Structure formats: C-alpha cells, structure tokens
Amino acid sequence: MIKINQKFENPLEHKTECLIIPCSEEKTPSGPLKTLDTALNGAISQAFKNKRFEGKPNQTLLLNSSLKATNLLLVGVGKTKEITPEILCRASATAAKLAEGSNFKSVSFYLNDSCFDAIAKGKIGLYSKLSCAVAEGAGLALYHFDEYKTRDEKDNPPSRVEKLTLIPTSKARQTAVEKSNARAEKIVAAVHFARDLISHPGNTATPTFLANHTKKMARKNKITCKVLGKQEMEKLGMGALLGVSRGSHEPPALIVMEYFGASKKKAPTVIVGKGVTFDSGGISLKPGAGMDEMKMDMSGAATTIATLQAVASLKLPLNVIGIVPAVENMPGGSAIKPGDILTSMSGKTIEVLNTDAEGRLVLADALCYAQHYNPKEVIDLATLTGAVLMALGHESAAVIGNNPAMIQRLKDAGDATGERVWELPLWEEFEKAVKSDIADLKNIASPGVGAGTIIGAAFLKPFAGDQPWTHIDIAGMAWGCDKPYTNKGASGYGVRLLINYLEHRKR
Ligand code: BES
Ligand code: ZN
Ligand code: ZN
After folding, report:
1. SS3 at position 335
2. Which ligand 1 atom minimizes the distance to the CA of 455?
3. Is residue 507 over pLDDT 70?
4. Phi, psi angles (nearest 5°) of residue 34
5. How far apart are CA 85 and CA 3, in angstroms?
6. Which of 293, 296, 356, 363 to mutate to test the pocket of ligand 1 (most atoms within 8 A of CB)?
7. Atom of ligand 1 nearest to the CA of 385
8. Is 286 a catalytic residue?
9. How far apart are CA 410 and CA 494, in angstroms?
10. Minimum-distance ligand to the CA of 293?
11. How far does residue 386's CA lie from ligand 1's centre (Å)?
C-alpha cells in the first residue's frame, strides 16, 4: 500500500527531490507562493511572464532550485474559480508521473493557499476533499504492474517514487490532511487491487484465483466470504451460469461477500460484478485480433471485490453485499451451442443465439441469487457490450435501470469522481426484442434491432427484481482509458464511483 505522508513546514525549508506546486492561471504569485518566487529570484513570475508556463490544466514546468527542494515542478490547475477535486486529481497525477519519469524518489505537494484556500474558503471539509484529490491523483498515477517481468529487469528496476508528502499551510489544516491522506490511501489501495486482478493474464486469474484472492481480502477486512462451487450451483438450478462454464476446464465459482456496517436488519445494497475471466466468445468464437484483451472481462468482478475492500476499510456505516459469478467462456467439446436452451435459476428459459453474449447469462443467475438478500437496491457492473464503446468511447460508462432517482445519484457520484456515467433508455420495445419464439427469452435481439448496450440491459431486467436496480456497462471504461491517473491497461473504473455513491446514500 502506498503511504502518503504530510508535513506542516515552510516550503523553503522542506527537503525533497521534487517540490510540486499546483498553480492556477493567476499571473502574479501571492502569499507563500510569492515568498517562494522571491527565494527563486522570480523564476515563477518570470515563467508566467514569458509564457513558458500559464497555469493551464495539467501544464507542467520543471525548474532547478537552490532551495532545500532540489527541483521545483509547477503544475497548472486552470482558473482558480473553476478548480474542482477532479482537476486537482488530474494535475497531481500528471505531476507525479513526470516526477517519477525524471527519476525523483521523494516528491512533495505544496497545498498552497492560492489554489486550495481560494476554493475551500476556510471550510475544512472542502479543503479535506481537495487534499484527498491530490493524494488520490498521485497514488493512482504511480501504479505499476510488473509481476511478470523476469529477474534481470527486476535487478535493474526503473526508478520509482518512494516517498510522497503533502504540505499543508497551517496547523489546523494539518489534521485535515492527515485524515484525507488516510482515506486516499484506502481508496488508492482498493483501485490498485482491482487493477492487479484485471492485469493478471487469463491463465493466472481463473475463477478459482479470483475466489482465493477474495477470501484473502475478506479475512483482512471485516467481510464474510463464501464461495459456491459447481455442485452448489447445480442445486440452486443456475443453468445459465453453468451453461457458459461448460466449454471450459476451469471450474466456475460464485463468490459472495457480506459486509455489515449497520444493523443486520437494514436491507443491503447488493453489487453484482461480471467475472468472465476470459471471454473467447465460446462457439461463437471472437476474431483473433485483440482477443488477448478479453482477460479484462472480469473487470466488473474486480471492481465489486475492490469496492467491498474499500467499504470495509473505510468502515462505511451501511450493509453491502458483493456477488461475483466467475466463469471462463471457452469453446470446449461440452460448450453450449447457438440454439441451445438453458433454464436459469429463476425458472425462466433462455435461448442462446450467440454464445459470445455470455455476460448476461452469468449475470441472470447472479442477479436472481441477489434476491436472497431482500436488497434495498442492486447495482450490476459488467463489461457487457462492445456497443457501449461506439456510444460513449472511453469517456463514460452507460447506466440503464428501473429507478430514475437511483440513476441520478449515480450520475452525481460520477461527476464528483470523474468516473462518469450516462443514461440510456430502457423502452419496452427493447424488452420485447429479447422475447424468444421458442423459450422465454433470447440472449440477443434479431439482426437490425441495434442498440446493443440497451438490449443487454433489457435481457437482465426480468432477473433483477422489483427493487431499484441499475446496470452499469463498463466495457469502454475498464480498459485502455487515457487519463492522467490511469495507465494504458486496467483502470479500476467504478471503485471511486461506487464509494462516492455509497457515502452519499441515505440510510
Ligand atoms: N465481453 C464482451 C464485451 C466487450 C467487448 C467487453 C469489448 C470489452 C470490450 C461481451 O461478452 C460480448 O462479447 N458481447 C457481444 C454481444 C453480442 C454478441 C450481442 C458484443 O458486444 O459484441
Ligand atoms: Zn462475449
Ligand atoms: Zn464477455
């Protein structure tokens, strides 16, 4: 876990290899920033004057310094009035990556008044949110996954930031930063955990691997974890989930996590995450190009498991259940075939017209299982459709559900965290489009219907129960997002969204 420190100290006296200073677009440094500028013989104001640095969001300027901080890194945060936690998160991530790329091992952020107090205006709660965003941005940006690099490279490892410090400007703010650092550490650890699970290749991260790592996580936190195997699922009649699993030699697992932060009588929020540890498409085999990326088809599962870790480590006062149907989708000799009909746990029969639309099959049984908990609300997260990439690219997940108020709360959480969601409509025409001629439902619509992402949700709806339910299609957000605080691969999208959502949830 990344440790994030704080030190209340005059920045002129602060020892570090790289002192990062968030700067807004104001031309003249004032307050402590002015003192710093003077100590540097006007280097900061000079940079503004000759437009080498203008404080635009994520703009950077690295300066040598004769202070105790041997290098100074200015990072832009845009117009003071428009500063938000997300802007600070991106700026600190940009700066942290640049500092690491410049081989600095100790890095400090100066939470100077002109950026932070101008927004917080003495409100310590808001100040704390801003400093948390800085810590999160840096922590998230400094993620690496190098477990599979061989020893040679490990002996000559690339330079890593080893010490991260935030510098508040007063004693009162020091306590706030101490608290927000502790919070950021837990959130960053959870997102890193999700990214690790997703980054492992399919031959490591099997359903059994996911189950074992979840059990380990649960033991460390106050979470009960049980794992149902094939036989238990057979007893429950989970024909849809087991159908997907049939073409693989890897045994399936239904991973169930229970966290009770409130009275057990209170109805829980249930989170269900698609855990297809590799999606070859099955008999409806995917094309070869890019198939390797389908190891990420358990991103919904990773987010669910990591969110439970975060909820427990932050000790949120509510009840949350996580359910992960974990399977591998392979075209083995016993695999299901197009045209096969499966009987789901709910009793509803499903005509499988495309074995590559497998996520909705495993979710159907997991959503039905969720009803055991009499949930207050159900959220499912899934890399369900390629179509969502056409609609929203890597900029937002799609949300589709049966309760406008719940969707609005998710949108608010998305805007606050930068993990955006965008609603698509679930009109009854789409629900009709998944009715089968020969069974109750079919897993894809007829050619020409289009709206692939909505069709996925329309299929799930009959299994989701009558309580508020929202489906989040994260296929565009889980992988390949290019944000300052993500890398090329797994993003861990959804953990920060759900934590924010749950924290604002009325009990
Ligand atoms: N796992 C895929 C969806 C996906 C695509 C995730 C791209 C991440 C990136 C899903 O199981 C799938 O194959 N969906 C099909 C559905 C179709 C057969 C109706 C798709 O999107 O093509
Ligand atoms: Zn598929
Ligand atoms: Zn899939």
Report:
1. coil
2. 19
3. no
4. -65, -40
5. 20
6. 356
7. 21
8. yes
9. 11
10. 1
11. 5
Interval 315-333: pLDDT, tens = 999 999 999 999 999 999 9
Is 215 exposed, middle or buried (CB count within 10 Å of its CB: 0-12, 13-18, 19+)? Answer: middle
- Evaluate: CB of 136 within 6 angstroms of ligand 1: no
Q: DSSP letters along 116-165, please? A: HHHHHTT-HHHHHHHHHHHHHHHHHHT----TTS-HHHHHSPPP---EEE
Contact 191, 495 (CB under 8 A): yes
Helix (H) and strand (E) counts in the chain: 17, 18
> Which residue carries 């499988």 as its tokens?
352
CA of 389 to the centre of ligand 2 (A): 14
DSSP 16: B
Distances in Å between the Cα of 170 and the Cα atoms of 20, 68, 96, 117 are 18, 20, 23, 11
Residue 61 CA, ligand 2 centroid: distance in Å: 45
Q: What is the pLDDT of residues 145-177, one digit of tens each?
A: 999 998 766 667 899 999 999 999 899 899 999
SS3 category, 447:
coil
Under 8 Å between Cβ of 141 and 97: yes
Q: Is 360 a catalytic residue?
A: yes
Sequence letter at residue 105? K
Tokens 């940006």 — which residue?
141
Best substitution site from 381, 385, 392 to test ligand 1's pocket, by max atoms within 8 Å of Cβ?
A: 385
The partner residues of 324 in beta bridges, in order of sequence, read 255
Give the nearest ligand 1 atom to 445 CA.
Answer: 19
Instruction: Look up residue 117 and give its two tokens.
Output: 């107090």
Among left, alpha and beta (phi > 0; psi -120 to 50; other), residue 81 is alpha
Q: How many angstroms does the Cα of residue 132 sit away from the middle of ligand 2?
A: 37
- Residues 286, 348, 376, 411: which is the catalytic one? 286
With a 6 Å cutoff on the Cβ, whether 300 touches ligand 1 is no
